[in-house]
Structures are given as structure tokens and as C-alpha cells.
Design brief:
With 474 residues, this protein is α/β, with parallel strands linked by helices. Among the domains are: 147 residues, Alpha-Beta Horseshoe (Leucine-rich repeat, LRR (right-handed beta-alpha superhelix)), CATH 3.80.10; 38 residues, no CATH class. The protein is 16% helix and 16% strand. The strands form 7 sheets. The chain has a 14-stranded mixed beta sheet with strand order 1-2-3-5-7-8-9-10-12-14-15-17-19-20, covered by helices on one side. This is Nyctalopin.
């Protein structure tokens, strides 16, 4: 009896699923594939060569995939009435226009993907009207120049907004005031600045990506309303400087990426409120100086990236007091491995977590890794800097001036005295005769130019020069 009841129970429970599967398959559009899922029916029409939206879908459709077709226009109520639809994907089509009200009849839609429709470029402010349950919107790679301010106002449940690879110059004003928004992706969208009101009212925002834009300026207080922010990506932009309070109020921030910019120094004020920071990227900048105490509040930092900069020295004072660090990346910097880096060499030995800190100077250690440098000690126990190799060796005291130098100076003076007195015509027509006179074995010979009536003067001058050299040798 119990076995019979169990079988009856299974049959009764299985009937609805069977009926649902049959209904899903029966109403499946031509060129599409339909299958029953836990919450309804899944419809796959991707790569089906469709030029228009099918006129009928299964009533219980929970997911529709129309990716990679040739759809160009979405008319009003393009999908009819589908009360169970939660996910709709229209990526990689040729959409150029979406009629306001195209998504009416989809009251439970939670995810809408419109990415990679490069001809879309413009959206009407009422495009997403009636999508009160939409949680995720993907507008990536649509070549949009702007987003109407009211476009997202009717999406109170929106959590995630992806609009990377577009043509914005500013952070879309349509984002302001979306209190439930948690993730925003705006990378590679030509944004030039983050203004003080760009992110106004985004009190639940947890992740913001602005990487690979053209951001030159972050205004003071730009993230003031983003107290819940945990991940901020500003890498690969054009930032050369930041205001002191650029990240004021970001007490929960765990990841900050400032790599690939043009920053020349690191200021202590930037990280004053970032006590929870775990990952800090400052790589691929032009940093030459890190301010004392710059990282002193970052007691929970797991990794610091300073590679690919112009640093020659890094002071221990930048990390004090009570600093603990998991990983430190310092390669591709022109390090000057003197006693100012002895603390770092000791930290490398103690932690075993850091290698590849090549020394560029002093000359005696150039080419070595900092971990291989041995610092000598003076008699008083102080660290002694490695030597800077000097190819020019100088002897102590004053050395007598070489004879050749005396002769060259005297000859130069004599040439200056005689040259102006010789007319151009006479100089050109004179016959020059070289005469060598040997005065002594240890006295150098003097060559005398016979220049007419001035030969005597030149001979006397040369004789005085030789005589003076002989005295100097004696």
C-alpha cells in the first residue's frame, strides 16, 4: 500500500513538469531550440540568422537568447507578454533603434544584455520604462555618446550597470541618485574627468571600474558619497596629480588601482582614510618620490605594487609605524643601493617574499640584486655606502705642468700675435721652408718658419721657449 501511494505521489508531481516541457517545445519558434528548466522554459535562438524578433515565444519562457543575429529594430512590445521572463540577451546584433515601450509586457525581467550593437548610438529616455525589476543592464560596445539623464530613473532595482567601450567624455549623469547600484563598469569609454558630483548619491556602490579611459583629473570629494566602495580601478589613465582628499571617506576600500598613469610622487594624504586597503597598485607611473608616512595607515596591506617607476630610494619612514606587508613589487626601478636601502635588504632576507630589486648604482654594485649587496661597517658600527666606481684616478698634491702643455700655450699665444700682421696676399704667395735645428740631445728641436723679415723675431721666440723648457727639466 505504501509503495502504491509513493508511486502515485511521484506521478502526480511529475505531471506538471511533463506538461511544462510539452508546452515549451510546442510553442518554440522556428530556428530556435527550447528546453525546460527549473523555473520555466529556456529559448536559444543565437546564430539563427534572424532578421526580426519571432512573433511567438513559450508563455513560460524564463530566458531568451537572441545573440549574433541580424536584428535591426525593436518595435513596441517586441516580445509580447512574457510574465515569467527574467533574462533577455540581444548581444552582437545590428540594432540601430529601440522603440520606447519595446520591453513592455516583461514585468519580471531582471537581466537585459544589449552589448555589441555598434549602430545603436542613441537611446530614448523611455526605452526601459516598466522594467521595475531590472537588476542588471549591459550596454557595452554600443558606441553611445551619452546616456539620457532619465534613462535609468525608472529602474529602482538596478544593481549592476555595464557600459564599457563607449564614447562618453563624462561619467553618465544618469547614474546619479541610483541608491541601489552596486557595480559600475565604465572602462575604455574616453571619460576625461571624475567631477565632484559624478557619483552623487551612489551610497551602496561597491565596485567602480574607470580603467583605460582618458581621465586627467579627479576632483576633490569625487567619491565622498561612495562610502561602501570596496574596489576602485583608475589604472591606465592620464592622471599626473591627485588632490589631497581624492579618496576621502572610502573607509571600506580594499582595492585601489592607480597603475599606468603619470603620477610623479605619492602623497601621504591620499591614503589617510584607507585603513582597510589590501591591494594598492602604483605601478607603471613616473614616481620618483614617496612622502614620509605615505603608507603608515595601511596596516592590512597584502600587496603593494611600485614596479615600473623612477624610484632610486624608498625610505622606511614611508611605512612606519607598525607596518606589516605581504608582498612588495619593486622591479623595473633605477635603485641606488646605498645605506638608505639597507632596511629593505634586511626585510627581503627576513620575509623571503621579495626578489628582483636590481641595483643601478653605485657602480661597485650595479647589476646586482639588492639581496646580494653586502653593506660594510665603519669602526663606530655605522653603515658604509658601496663605492661609486671612478675611472679617473687623481694623485694627491699638485703635479708640475707637462712640457707639452707649456709649449702648446706659448705657441698658441705666438700664433695669435703674428697672425693679424700677415696680409692675406703675402700669406698666400709666401714660400714656406721648414728648418730643423738640433741644439742638444736633451733639448727638443724647434721648427722655424722663415717669413721674410719676421724670421728673426720668430727664431728668438722659439729659442727662448726651448731654453725655458731646458731649465724646467733641470
Amino acid at each position: 500500500m505504501n509503495t502504491f501511494l509513493l508511486l502515485l505521489h511521484l506521478v502526480v508531481l511529475g505531471l506538471p513538469r511533463t506538461w511544462a516541457t510539452e508546452a515549451c517545445l510546442r510553442a518554440c519558434p522556428t530556428a530556435c531550440t527550447c528546453s525546460s528548466v527549473e523555473r520555466g522554459c529556456s529559448v536559444r535562438c543565437d546564430r539563427a540568422g534572424l532578421q526580426r524578433v519571432p512573433t511567438e515565444f513559450p508563455c513560460k519562457a524564463a530566458s531568451i537568447d537572441l545573440d549574433r543575429n541580424g536584428l535591426r529594430i525593436l518595435g513596441e512590445r517586441a516580445f509580447g507578454t512574457l510574465p515569467s521572463l527574467r533574462r533577455l540577451s540581444l548581444r552582437h546584433n545590428n540594432l540601430s533603434f529601440i522603440t520606447p515601450g519595446a520591453f513592455k509586457g516583461l514585468p519580471r525581467l531582471a537581466e537585459l544584455r544589449l552589448a555589441h550593437n555598434g549602430e545603436l548610438r542613441y537611446l530614448h529616455a523611455r526605452t526601459f520604462a516598466a522594467l521595475g525589476h531590472l537588476r542588471r543592464l549591459d550596454l557595452a560596445s554600443c558606441r553611445l555618446f551619452s546616456v539620457p539623464e532619465r534613462l535609468l530613473a525608472e529602474l529602482p532595482a538596478l544593481r549592476e550597470f555595464a557600459a564599457f567601450d563607449n564614447l562618453f567624455r563624462h561619467v553618465p549623469a544618469a547614474l546619479r541618485g541610483l541608491e541601489n547600484l552596486t557595480h559600475v563598469h565604465l572602462e575604455r569609454s574616453r571619460i576625461e574627468a571624475v567631477a565632484s558630483n559624478s557619483l552623487q548619491g551612489l551610497r551602496r556602490l561597491r565596485a567602480l571600474s574607470l580603467q583605460a579611459n582618458r581621465v586627467r583629473a579627479v576632483h576633490a570629494g569625487a567619491f565622498y558619497d561612495c562610502g561602501a566602495l570596496e574596489h576602485l580601478l583608475l589604472n591606465d589613465n592620464l592622471l599626473a596629480a591627485l588632490p589631497a582628499d581624492a579618496f576621502r571617506g572610502l573607509h571600506l576600500l580594499r582595492t585601489l588601482n592607480l597603475g599606468g598613469n603619470a603620477l610623479g610622487q605619492v602623497a601621504r594624504a591620499w591614503f589617510a582614510d584607507l585603513g582597510e586597503l589590501e591591494l594598492l597598485y602604483l605601478d607603471r607611473n613616473s614616481i620618483t618620490f614617496v612622502e614620509e608616512g605615505a603608507f603608515q595607515n595601511l596596516s592590512g596591506l597584502l600587496a603593494l605594487h611600485l614596479n615600473g617607476n623612477h624610484l632610486t630610494v624608498l625610505s622606511w619612514a614611508a611605512f612606519q609605524p607598525g607596518f606589516f606587508l605581504g608582498h612588495l613589487f619593486l622591479f623595473r626601478n633605477p635603485w641606488h643601493c646605498d645605506c638608505h636601502l639597507e632596511w629593505l635588504r634586511d626585510w627581503i632576507e627576513g620575509s623571503g617574499r621579495l626578489t628582483d630589486v636590481p641595483c643601478s648604482s653605485p657602480g661597485s654594485v650595479a647589476g646586482l640584486d639588492l639581496s646580494q649587496v653586502v653593506f660594510e661597517r665603519s669602526s663606530s658600527g655605522l653603515c658604509v655606502d658601496p663605492e661609486e666606481l671612478n675611472l679617473t684616478v687623481s694623485s694627491p698634491g699638485l703635479s708640475p705642468e707637462p712640457v707639452a702643455t707649456t709649449m702648446s700655450r706659448f705657441s698658441s699665444l705666438l700664433s695669435k700675435l703674428l697672425a693679424p700682421r700677415v696680409p692675406v696676399e703675402e700669406e698666400a704667395n709666401s714660400t714656406l721652408v721648414l728648418s730643423n735645428t738640433s741644439l742638444s740631445d736633451n733639448i727638443p728641436s724647434c721648427g722655424m718658419w722663415v717669413l721674410g723679415h719676421k724670421g728673426t723675431i720668430l727664431f728668438i721666440s722659439c729659442f727662448l721657449l726651448i731654453y725655458g723648457v731646458g731649465l724646467q727639466r733641470d
